[in-house]
Design brief:
The protein is an alpha+beta fold. It contains 7 helices and 4 strands; from the N terminus they run H-E-E-H-H-E-E-H-H-H-H. The protein has 2 domains: 48 residues; 113 residues, rbstp2171 (2-Layer Sandwich), CATH 3.30.2220. It is globular, with a radius of gyration of 32 Å.
Length: 185
Amino acid sequence: MSDSLYETPNEGEAAEKSTSKKVTKDLASASAPKEENLLERLKATISAKVEREVVLLEVPDRKDVLLRISPNITQAQMKAWRKNAGEETKNGLDPTKFACQVIGQSCVGIEIDGQEVFDEAGNSLNFAADEVLEMTGTTRPVPDAVRAFFGTDPHIEGAALAILESAGYGDTVDVVDPTSLSSMS
């Protein structure tokens, strides 16, 4: 009788140990896929191309005319546009020429009365399109066609600033307090 009393706790301890090992192992395996899922989600998020959608820009003094603008502007493009506007010359950067570069190079289409205008081949119009050069009476898309299209320099500079803003230049990036995250969930 006493032998069975002594044997039962030892067997119980063994059963308890194997159960606790199994529970620990189950918890570890249950959390591993969750971490892999988060890792996979992060990989997918980071590998996706970041691209802003086309925005519409009103052309002041041109009733119902909108420019379709791609606000996906890189620093390399900005550097090239500044150089084309005279940044590295004796006279320095011409702000209106720079603004024309921003507008002319980011324009991917033109709309009137809410509908995009296409050339005879079905291509979207931009400032390099023969039709736009013809209607503006110019031979160079930038800066000439842009200047003729807008009509006034202040509108050109204002439009360029709006484009750069839609591209994210000037955006603020907020720091998140990690202690506030726990209260959100």
